[in-house]
Amino acid sequence: xxxxxxxxxxxxxxxxxxxxxxxxxxxxxxxxxxxxxxxxxxxxxxxxxxxxxxxxxxxxxxxxxxxxxxxxxxxxxxxxxxxxxxxxxxxxxxxxxxxxxxxxxxxxxxxxxxxxxxxxxxxxxxxxxxxxxxxxxxxxxxxxxxxxxxxxxxxxxxxxxxxxxxxxxxxxxxxxxxxxxxxxxxxxxxxxxxxxxxxxxxxxxxxxxxxxxxxxxxxxxxxxxxxxxxxxxxxxxx
Length: 238
Hints:
The chain is α/β, with parallel strands linked by helices. The protein is 50% helix and 11% strand.
């Protein structure tokens, strides 16, 4: 192939890439003005199945370190579920050093205890570095006990439950750590606050000030999780 043909081919591929990217970005922006990203996120946070019996084990799937948004949210919800089912053991599934009392594992344990969880109920799964490995390790720890209640982030719940079911823990359900919106209205009168009056006021436009950006963020989270679900399906992990 001549050099000119190579250049022409590169130009053709670049043109197609720019067109596809422009269309994708336009769709991304348009969807940010709708509620669809929220519902995509919400349905990932719905467990594929429910339990008819009380759980024998509550498994908190580790997110970030401690303190972190995911770590604190998951321990908060785990404590609520543990107090609801006080006989269930609670497994913290987070890779870390069990000999280090300052590790995120122990900080999560301390947070759970501070919220009323019995320390004798808490055990660690500290080896798994992804959801598949955590599911396999938890199975090795507790099998054939088979009533599991997972605690994890909303976008991760569907894949987590499916992963545990796939390894043989078929009676698995879960609870997503959905945030709760504040009750106060966030609108305000720009004129009452002074400043440059030439700039249009956005005080009453909470859609543009908050929801638009939040829905952009949700799309990134959801699309990333869709890719992870696709990978797990191809690997036959779910």
